[in-house]
Amino acid sequence: MNSAKKMAKTTTILMIITLVSKVFGFVRETVIARYFGAGMEADAYFMALGIPNLIFASIGASISTTFIPLYTQLMNVDGKKAANTFSSNLLNIISIICCFLLILGIIFSPNLVNLLAPGFSGAKYDLTVVITRILFIGAIFNMISAVLTGILQSNESFLGPALVGFPYNIAVILGCIFFTRYYGVYALTIATLIGTMGQALVQLFFIKGKYSYNRVLDFKDPYVKRLVFLIIPVLIGTAIGQINTVVDKALASGLEQGSVSAINYSSRLTGFVQGIFVSSVITVIYPFFSQLCAKDDYDDLNKYISGSINIFTMIMLPITIITILYSRDIVSIVFERGEFVKKDVELTAFSLVFLSLGFLPFAIREVFNKAFYALQDTRTPMINGAIAVLVNITVDFLLVKHLNVGGLSLATSLSFLASVICFLISWKRTMRCSIGEIVDLKGLGKLIITAILFFIVIWIFNKKEVHLFLSVILGGIIYICILWLFGARELKVAYSYISKRIANKK
């Protein structure tokens, strides 16, 4: 019970911090839109930003996933000193490898831009190459930040990793406001680099007392070898996931000007939702999955998966409906100012509509991802990720000619759905269970009917030109009332938790 309370408290804190961080992120994107709109410089910057991320974000995410169990094992078996030595050794090895990759990245930036942005030419191409070379420098700090995150989370310290978005956002915001008039997009680029450095530095502040650095370099360390062995399927799976973004941007680079920026801005909006409602919850339920797997309690594991799917369905369907019907209002409120004009609003809103269709599939995909990782099965997520990418690329080429940027966004959402289908089949085969054991069909039916009624209400509000915020408030009240009338178990659980929290405070 204490563990459940602690996890509930941690989830609440993480959601609040994530919400504030995402708000700062939106301010950042709004400031960028204000000064650069969706023109040539914005396209060049966003494309250049994605090139180092393609390489290093995959490595960083893989390190964070595989580092924690190894660090924890060392802590329990050989003590904190051994864990610190392993961490220092890993940091040193990563720094050396990143310096080598940095040199290669700077040298081959023109080739990477040609490969990933085939539609860029002339001044836009030259500018993208220069920005890419500058941003490659930040890759070293991204890798260091990934290891520091692993150390902190292994020591049950979540505040530092949760705060990494703040120095990045603040640096970009201040850089745009005070220096864009003098240095243009280069001010934004340097501010991004400084913000990336800040992400590592802010974690150093929280790591005091939890880690001490050692001067050690041992490529033959058995734990380093074990990490490499574990990281390969995770790295491949993460890298495969990055391909979706690369393909979308590559095809968007050949569409009308502003298409790359439209995908970026709409992705930021969907990322806001995913970060608050998906990532925070997944962070908390993952340890529960791991504990159940360790006890071989697969019946309860299936119940947790089923409950997680229902909770995400209850949350994500109304958000999807609001986003679709009020896409222009959302984009206009967040971005429309300065250089970001009506045309940019229409293009970004069009992309957002199709991306929002992937809210629920994305959440369910993450549930199954963590479930398989809890089983120490990293191969299945990698294979399913590859299938999803093939679906994405195929649908990209089928729809881009008809829906332009909307086709690329729809392909992304459909790839999430394909991944969910693959995971359901894989889980059914792995657990040797029926679909009914992992999907609460009756509960889902109630939630879907409620969502349909909610859609009708919001559609009427939209036609009557009711303001977005008023629609959200009134629609939310009606949605909760319908859920209550239908006896939705998920709502009753949430109500019980909130009531207990209020009672405890009294």
Description:
By secondary structure, this protein is mainly alpha-helical. Helices cover 86% and strands 0% of the residues. The chain has helices spanning 2-36, 40-77, 80-107, 109-116, 122-135, 139-154, 159-162, 165-183, 185-206, 222-252, 259-294, 298-325, 327-335, 342-356, 359-374, 379-403, 405-431, 435-438, 441-463, 468-486, 489-505. The mean pLDDT is 85.
Question: What layout of secondary structure does this protein have?
Answer:
Elements: H1 2-36, H2 40-77, H3 80-107, H4 109-116, H5 122-135, H6 139-154, H7 159-162, H8 165-183, H9 185-206, H10 222-252, H11 259-294, H12 298-325, H13 327-335, H14 342-356, H15 359-374, H16 379-403, H17 405-431, H18 435-438, H19 441-463, H20 468-486, H21 489-505
N-to-C CA distance: 20 Å
| Helical/strand content category | mainly alpha
Secondary-structure element string:
HHHHHHHHHHHHHHHHHHHHH
Largest sheet: none
Number of distinct helices: 21
Instruction: Work out the helicity level.
Output: over 70%
Total beta strands:
0
Write a brief caption for the model.
With 506 residues, this protein is mostly helical.
What labels would you give this structure?
0% strand; 506 residues; mainly alpha; globular; 21 helices
